[in-house]
Structures
1.
Amino acid sequence: MREYRTGIGWDLHRLTPGRPLILGGVTVPSELGLEGHSDADVLSHAITDAVLGAAALGDIGMHFPDSDPRWAGADSLLFLRHALSLAAERGYRLVHVDATVILERPKLQDYRSAIREKLAATLGLDLDRVSVKFKTAEKLGPVGESRAAEAQAVVMLVGSQNRLGPGGCKPITC
Ligand code: C5P
Ligand code: MG
């Protein structure tokens, strides 16, 4: 029997002048950008955590500590690819992604296609399996006051029928 697994991811980064706003690997023109050790792509981080979560492989900080100089300024799509390859090693393939970015401004709807296309190419998914939604926080709280941006993601992974569990046993006998 095929095994389906869901994963949830969430992230938040501060907004600050002098940094780029990178979402799903796409640079969006903005007065404020995201602060962080890597490129601070809050959307890619949330999706990465969702993939890791679905496969019970820990979280992004476990694999890419923000104390490690190797990840300074890193392209976060690399984290996403790595999470997918870890899941693939365990016999899991990504089925679809649904994500939400919560940001007061700028308006992101003009960038939806570019972000979906970039993520679909990175994730090896058809476009109709990549959903990206945008919301404001109605001027409330740190996100609403444009001090931060937040992202949430849900993914589904499917395990191949030949998937091996810990110790090399078939999941049904593990
Ligand atoms: O948050 P709110 O419900 O007012 O958002 C309305 C719409 O504006 C969203 O459905 C989304 O399409 C768009 N939006 C956007 N960029 C944002 C926030 C919202 O394009 N930063
Ligand atoms: Mg992050």
2.
Amino acid sequence: MIPRRADFPKDFLFGAATSSYQIEGHSFGSAGRTHWDDFAATPGNVVRAENGAIACDHYHRWPEDFDLMQQAGFDVYRFSTSWARVMPEGRGAVNTEGLDFYDRLVDGMLARGLKPAATLYHWELPSALADMGGWRNRDIADWFADYTEVVMGRIGDRLRSAAPINEPWCVSWLSHFLGHHAPGIRDIRATARAMHHIGLAHGRSIAAMRGLGIGNLGAVCNMEYAAPADTSAAAAAAAQLYDGYYNRWFLSAMFKGEYPADVLEGLASHMPADWQDDMATIAAPVDWVGINYYTRKLIAPAPGPWPAHQEVAGPLPKTEMGWEIYPEGLEFFLRRTAQDYSGDLPIYVTENGMAGLDNLVGGAVNDAARIDYLSQHLAAVQKVAADGVPVKGYFTWSLLDNYEWALGYEKRFGLIHVDFETLQRTPKASYHALSRALTRSA
Ligand code: FCB
């Protein structure tokens, strides 16, 4: 049973989240090419080599999607703007069709009583910037600050909140060390540079928005609970290091102006020159922090070079992503983030959800597993909030089934089913359950 609105503190916000490339349809509106188009066109990177050219066609169908948001009773909508849609070459010329689109979106939210929560970068780097080294190139901080000014100069006056970058770990480690996401690099020097430049770009973007007089700015980091695979000291150390480069690196930089010593042991020799001089910029004060949380990982030591560890399969029930369901991890991160990093600042769960089988049968999708997942995680949030941790809102990932990156359209995370042939939307049982829980009592 999903906890009800009345079970949460007054003013707690409920929302749903999406991102530009995953839903809009990148072939529409004169958007520029992105490194996800290139990554997907390279054999072996993405299931069926699918890309975001059409996606959910949210570019044209957004009024229907926002009507469904409104009917569900959500307070706030987390969306992202696409750099390549607004600046097709990443720098210089602005595509006014792109800016007009985001202008319409924001007004469309406001017209339906939905508070806009914007993210400036959810992974679709313009290909022209990838050609110049993308996140490996320190100049990306300047390019990103310029792009920030262009977007926020247009829509910044009507937002409830804004964040520069979605999930720095995915942009850097997942994409430059593991190579699972665009640009698909597997190189420790590229990783260290991306892990640093992303913080610098974040700080510069925050400063650019402050300069425009925009308030309520935050950072959105993804976190995975790292548990040792067994009781050995070596497994404990492996899990701690995983926690370091995944969960602590970015928060530590943004809130303390320093990188965790245990992670620097492995990365220091790969960092760009004089990185220390950038830490004050990276630690620009923010007004809130967002946590994206899905799962935990069991970590064991492994032979080979740093970080010398591996993930092993865990025993808990899993989602269609193969991710263990572990709501205790969300509770842990909410408490630790407040205690060790953000203090009294508001914390938002900016993403949480699961991929399910979600078959459309007789015009309905009975996604009982998702209702259970949301119930467990919302109960964790409720418990932590009752203990006084300043968690102020929760966003489900995602409003719609969408382009799940390297997994193409195969993994369904939505509260609303999308038929990717007809693009027809069908609210799932979880949408209806959440909607009942959010109804305000008279
Ligand atoms: C997060 C991403 C989001 C989606 C979910 C499942 O890491 O921010 O775009 O892919 O995972």
